[in-house]
Amino acid sequence: MNKIIATILQRVGLEGETVIPLKGATSSHVFRAGDSVFRIHTNAAWLKQEPDLVAHEVFALQATGMLGPDVENYQLMWDGQIPPWIQMTHLPGDVRLKPLNRAYLRQLAKTLAAIHQLPVPEARYRYAPYVTKRTVPSWTVQTEVWQRAVAEPPATSQQIRFIHRDFHPVNVLYESVEKYNVVDWINACVGPIEADVAHCRLNLALLESMEAADQFLAEYIACSGFSYDRKWDLTAVFDFEPDTVDVYAGWKAYGKTNISQGNVRERMENIVLKVYENDESGY
User: Fold this and answer.
1) Which parts of the chain fold into alpha helices (H)?
2) Tell me: the pLDDT tens digits for 113-129?
3) pTM score of the predicted model
4) CA dihedral 81, 49, 231, 211 (to 10 degrees)
5) How wide is the angle at C-alpha 267 spanned by C-alphas 262 and 273, nearest 5°?
6) What residues are paired with 162 via a beta bridge?
């Protein structure tokens, strides 16, 4: 990898710059050099499934305006021994996983609402759920509730916008009380805003609590004016593949080390139970 990095830096005129690996990446190699951030695609299985990953991220970053980094350079396909890569501007700020208090959640919601107010680009990349076949996790003792969730028709939306598709606290950099910067746009696409809201809600529920997820939702509705059907929570849950769900490596990388797989399973089940609390799925 050192040789690959050196070759890329030489090509973009940053030869000799200090290389700083960035925490949290699980499917690619991400590092900073000078005022740039690089993503090198090292996951052969992901590249085989989506050979246009760099083109997808270029599309996404060109749609983000001031809300994301700028594209500086890239290589779309393999070039000899050098895998696809992208160079983008470095955004200031730090990942903060605590305290996830009301002030943090309010600004998190405002940041997501701002993304959903961006102009909708030509729909070159469209949303699709990651999982289409729902199954009851083997570890649950709430089998009937999960069976109901499995049988639930997928939620629908009339609120189609440009969405981040992986919006959660590890992909948000705290610059100031009023300014959060968003990174990791590689999955961004045109799709239902609820997919973003549900994904972030589930991350907050697993990382912190159901109360944090609900507070985020309340703040998002207050600042965006959009409605939300809690059945979207189920789509997020099944996208996480509950039978094998575990502690996300990014949480550990940023210091959240007091969560176990048991905690994650219990909190995931709580969000499913909440969907059917008093037979109310809307919010």
Assistant:
1) 2-11, 44-49, 53-63, 102-116, 143-151, 193-207, 210-224, 231-239, 249-253, 261-275
2) 999 999 999 888 999 99
3) 0.93
4) -20
5) 125
6) 190
